[in-house]
Design brief:
Alpha-Beta Plaits, alpha+beta, 21% strand, 95 residues, two-stranded antiparallel sheet, two-stranded antiparallel ribbon
C-alpha cells in the first residue's frame, strides 16, 4: 500500500479548525492599563487578542484560546482573567 505522508499544516490552519462559543460576558478584562506589560501582550498573545487602538491597549476576547499567558505576564490588579462560563469559550478540534 502506497500511503502519502500527511499534509503538514501551519499552526494558524490548525487553530482555525477550533470552534468558539462567544459569550456576551467578557472572561478577560483590563482593569488598569498603566501597570500591564503592553509590549509583551501585543507581541506574545498567540491569537493577537491584544491590540493597540488610539494609543490604548484593547483586549478582544472573542478568539481567545484561554492559554493563560496574559494572566502569567500581568499583575492580578491590572487584569481580571477567568475561564468563560460553562459551555462558552473555545472547543478544541484535533486532526
Amino acid at each position: 500500500m502506497n500511503r502519502s505522508p500527511p499534509k503538514k499544516m501551519r499552526i494558524e490552519e490548525l487553530i482555525r479548525r477550533n470552534v468558539w462559543e462567544v459569550d456576551k460576558e467578557r472572561h478577560i478584562e483590563i482593569l488598569d492599563e498603566k501597570d500591564l506589560p503592553k509590549k509583551q501582550l501585543l507581541l506574545l498573545c498567540p491569537m493577537r487578542c491584544y491590540v493597540e487602538e488610539e494609543g490604548r491597549l484593547v483586549m478582544h476576547y472573542e478568539e481567545c484560546v484561554e492559554c493563560g499567558l496574559c494572566r502569567i505576564l500581568s499583575n492580578p490588579k491590572s487584569l481580571r482573567w477567568d475561564l468563560p462560563r460553562g459551555g462558552m469559550g473555545i472547543r478544541y478540534r484535533y486532526g
